[in-house]
Amino acid sequence: MDTDVSLKPVSFWAQLNALMRKNLTFQRRNIRTNLGLIIIPLLLCLLLFSIQKLAAIIAVEPEIHCDCGECIDDESQESCDKKCSNVFDMIVGKSTYCPEPHPPQLPVLFQIPMTQFRATKSSSSPTSSNYNSGLPDNSCRKNGSCPVTILITGQNRTFAKNIGKNLFGSKTLENPSDSVNPLVVASEFMLGTTAFPPSTYYFEPAFMMLSPALYIIHPKCSSNISFPVSIKMGGLSLSQDVKCVDGLSLWRENSSVINKELSMGYQMGNPNRRIDEILAAYDFSNTNSNIFNVTIWHNETYKNIGPLLRISRASNAAANAYLQFFKGDNVKMLLEFVKEMPKGATKPGIINVSTLLSPLFFTWVIELLFPVMLTYLVQEKQNNMRMMMKMHGLGDLPYWIISYAYFLLLSASYMLCFSLFGSLIGIKIFTLNKYSLQFVFYFVCINLQISLAISSSALFSRVKTATVVGYLYVFISGLLGSSIFERFVEDASYPRELLEVMEIFPGFSLYRGFYELAQYSLRVESLGAPHVGWKDINNDKQGMRAVLIIMIVEWATLVLLAYYLDQVVSNGKGVRKHPLWFLSKFQGKTNINKQRQGYDILINMDKPDVAQEREIVEKLIQEPSKIQAVLCDNLRKVYPGSDGNPDKHAVRGLSLAISQRECFGMLGPNGAGKTSFINMMTGLSRPTSGTALVQGIDISKDMDKVHYLMGVCPQHDLTWDSLTGREHLLFYGRLKNLKGDLLMQAVDESLHSVNLLDKGVADKLVGQYSGGMKRRLSVAISLIGNPRVVYMDEPSTGLDPASRKKLWSVVQQAKKDRAVILTTHSMEEAEALCDRVGIFVDGYLQCIGSPLELKARYGGYFVLTVTTPSNEEEEVEKLVQQISSTAIRVYHLSGTQKFHLPKQGVRLSDIFREVEAAKRRLNIQAWGLSDATLEDVFIKVAKAANSLHDHNLDKKSD
């Protein structure tokens, strides 16, 4: 194997290839999840289609007889009348569904205020003489006798008032003897109605009301005057009574007074709060014998979605009044009727559910992918999977390219299935818009959504939080779009510039795009217009062009922002860069402070081995030509305190030199700083001060280069359950620049070395592995590719004795050509593997040296263990004092006692002789003598360090 392979930087394309192969395998194993995501819009379309079909089934065609009212020869009048008993439903049905080659001639009516809303001099009205003069007291509302009021103004008061008198007609009222045609009545008098105006004039609701709805407005009206009128409608002869209502014409000083009076009466346009309604108002302005100039206020209180069909009567009344003033009562310019165009028969319409739900439905469908992508990215960060790949040489750019490509492929498949299936089942928004326009819009939408998910992922560290926020974004953005944003779009008075500012919010821009597509489809469906294309979106009244421009600019901006936030906020939970790292003057500038920390140095001045290690580091720093595998110079890590707690000093002024082909063991109790040290060295966290060099490369400046040189076995296994052990090693091997046969050979050797090659274990999914098997795989991953420095954080945790021995042989073989830094709680493991050992307590390096040196330096005593009955413990203690007066009992339980005997002045022969002699008088059941172990050294050093720490705390408190 080429031992220098890992020293060569892995090319961008090699990283891209490694990650792409891994992701293809991973996504292929998760094909059900991916297909499930793609099928979601199909299910939603099916739901939409089912609702549409259900609406079609429920919709029952009305029983409309288009020949109703025209009885055939063999049909009795009685059966004909029975068939057409519901006149109102029949007329409405005929006007909607039956052919109308000759629509009826219907008169245009005034819109008369309802009795309870006619203008009076109420207490809420202004008291100024300019307002309400001439109006009756509001007591008339009790008996329904309030008149209908017309307001008049103009430059010539006398002239305007004279014309105003003619508005009600010039003839006197008389009860007719027979039924008359309403067209005749409308030509002679003011004919009005309190019924709501029709949407078309195929029929007039005023002629089909059960209660009186037709009125003649006249200044001299009596309660006994009534006009029976008849009209032919839909083949039927209809008769309706016309009652008389008083008409009141009042003068106002100018149009401003009229405006205010109308506004006060209508209560700011809220029909539920209207108080005093006026029939109409006229400003004759500068009208004279040569000029007819009039401004008309008409009553539009009862308008609906239909056209303004009643205004023509107010205009015709003014024209007739003007003509009659100058030419006499017999001169008229009549608007006798309004008639719709002929039409053919139509079928009952079925509600288009997709049109009703657009664009909210489509916005929600597209945005459903946002929380999925956001959760995927945050999960890789939370589980440290991205950081694991980064520590083995994967750069940021290849990671984001492959992630973006996966999201783009997923989103494109999602949208393609959605639009194609929607087109097949006939959803109008897909079928009635140009597919090229839709393609561009959907493509920009999904890219904007991907960039938004990537940039947002930098702000989250927990999957649960990201998931909740993601779905809240989908839900709230859709609701805000439909309830607020759409109203601004439809309000022509709202500035278009502010709309475009609102569309910077991605949810609103997506909503606006679907809103425009929905409007295009409605236009095509209702008006038969051609499909909307690219030339149509250039219309300033349309918003699609602005939406596309905004989304494209925002897409590019969010891509750059995502990369920036990843470097300075997230970086896969690794070391974050300076906010201005891209500027040359900030290149390599960090918060690392190389000044010595006096307190940390003084603490260890009484430890010669630690002080000597510090001196070695200082010399090596001054000689850069002598490259060490790892060189730490006064490395410190402090975690800021919170909630009033003090700062946590995890690593305090560590100076350490580790050479190539050396295995260095880090021992210490939990919380001593071992994992914090490895996190700093692997790029998971930044040192608070100090620096470290790996193969001569500063971790504070070129961590990306350091990643190429190292392998990591983390404390917790970081693997993908959907990949096999072999696939893991293939991926990490490619990241270490291994290719072809060299890669396959290295993978097989690694699997064999950790006993994963037998019985097909290597090709099983890691999700089926036991804890010990995953641990061995993590060790194999850290060693593949021959990295120069390997960090192993408690690698034997969870292994059985046989696997542990096998692992030790792997590490012993690996340290022949690389540096290994090992943390462990097993003293046996440290003695078997480590060339040197450092014991850490409370962030300090307490001692350093080989296991034998430490035992000799901190041991210096024999360990005597004696087991007797409990009642003989005192006799055994006296025996040991006879052997050595400085012996210390360190343990006793149920007759078993352990003593430390200093080696000075004690001979082994004396110990054996005294114990053998004591057997004659004592019941010594077992005894043993041993040298001090590394575990004894560890306990002794830890106790001494904790005592010193407690003493320093006491001095500080004093």
Automatic annotation (TrEMBL):
Residues in ABC transporter domain copies: 630-867
A family per Pfam: ABCA12_C
Membrane topology label: Multi-pass membrane protein
Residue stretches spanning the membrane: 31-51, 356-378, 399-427, 439-461, 468-485, 546-565
Subcellular compartments: Membrane
The UniProt record lists the keyword Repeat: no
UniProt keywords, alphabetically: ATP-binding, Membrane, Nucleotide-binding, Transmembrane, Transmembrane helix
Any one GO molecular function term: ABC-type transporter activity
InterPro entries: AAA+_ATPase, ABC2_TM, ABC_transporter-like_ATP-bd, ABC_transporter-like_CS, ABCA, P-loop_NTPase
Gene Ontology cellular component list: membrane
Keyword Repeat part of the UniProt annotation: no
SUPFAM superfamilies named in the record: P-loop containing nucleoside triphosphate hydrolases
Family: Belongs to the ABC transporter superfamily. ABCA family. CPR flippase (TC 3.A.1.211) subfamily.
The name this protein goes by in its record: ABC transporter domain-containing protein
